[in-house]
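Title: Prediction job returns without error message
Component: structure pipeline
Severity: low
Priority: P3
Assignee: unassigned

Description:
Job completed but the reporter wants confirmation the result is attached to the right record. Sequence as submitted:
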Amino acid sequence: MHKLIPAAVLAALPVAALAETTASPVSVPLEIRGDYESWVLPGSEAMGMVGVGVRQQVGEHGFLGVDLYGAVRGERGGFITLGGTAGLRWPLSERLSLETSLHLGAGGGRGGRTLSGGGLLLRESVGLRYQLPGLGTVHAGISHVDFPDGGVIHSTQAYAGFSLPFRALLQAGGPAQSWQMPPAFNAGTYHPQQQAFSTLLREVLVSDGSRMDDGRTQQDFTLIGAEWRTAFREHVFTRIEASAAMRGGVAGYMQVLGGLGLQYPLGQRAKVHGSLSGGFGGGGGVDTAGGFLAAADIGLQWEVAPAWQVDVAAGYFAAPEGSLRAKTLTLRVAHAFGGLPAGSSAAANGSNGGSAPTLAGVNFEPRALRVRFAEQHYFKGSADWRSLPQVEVGNLGFQFDYFMNPQWYLTGQGLGAYTGKAGAYMTGQLGVGTHRALSANTFVEVEALVGAAGGGGLRTGGGLVYQVNANLGWQVNENTAVLLGVGELKAANGSLRAHVAGLSIAYRFNGFTPR
């Protein structure tokens, strides 16, 4: 019965998010959320878990979100899951509210299918939220986690955390035109901060004394991943990064980092920056102990074309509880957008973090975006595609698309195994796709991706993988579509080859940024 749960929840999530298309954008409340809780494993082993995610309010009482959970304490560094969350909130007073949620996820690590079975995760929670004036929201409660597809983790525990609210100008539906904010528009606490999305390659040069879990000397390895930056003051930015191993014999290693940074201009096109970050990671035999990571870097950034930047940085990161210590060299290619036009009256009225800026009269450009709640099934494509058992693998996760124009889009996907005795398998990939309409309600898409994968007994070699997908889509309404797909996944330096069948439900919307 539990194998039917992903499909049922997958179908229900976007339905709750449906909104009537509006002639102008809506200032949508969102929040960045962080939690901590400690799961009890067999043998009374404790595993401290941090959850990070983004939530969007839906209607008066509902919310939807995407969340990552990762180990930071204990002996299971690299135990990471990814999934979606839906929930309800009821106000009890002006600042206090009751919150319940259901999280559907997939993943595992450091124990593989022994701990998480196929990888399917169900997490229920109930708790209280208290709004701090002008700061954010603290929350605490009780949660229960279960890995029902053959896993051995069944744990009930307390959780506590903090949520930071923000707003985005969004519009449901398809194509949109540029828009000028009218004087009467209620933007709430919306601040048009500059954003930047980067793809990154990082060479990890391990220090003497770094050892793998089995005692062997740790070798250098390479990570591929993505980063999101938000400038919330003139010289201050926040960052969040997810990356995974693609070379170096540590397939299955993954890390998620978040932190604060400072940046200062060097002339018209260059900036110097530095940041401090913390997070979680492990897997692939890398000794991160409980999983907590700390990192720092300093770098130079050049604007090579309008809105496009190249960044090189040197840094250091370590697992304080493990033996991993390393210097890092990182190359980023970034696309920047948002922020207020230089010299505008709005920019002079608090857009860098004081009171809300005066936005009336500012022109906003639409950015066509899409999120897909996805299931992908892997079928045997080569004789030794995975170690025993030789059964198909089901994966759950998300795909995010940014449409550069109606025919071409940039895409990224993050997936984790939920069935097939492949708990701990995860993959993250980036690529490009093309969209072509067949009729008013049907379309086809072809996309090519490259990234990292590992764990769950799939033979990914060093971790670098390629995937191509072909999708047939049906446009249910202006902002919701169903896609059926087929594809092929192959490891660059391993024997993994898998035929892929996929189902996703897509929600398309426009995000607006100042021009």
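Comment from assignee: result matches the submitted record. Helices lie at 5-17, 112-116.
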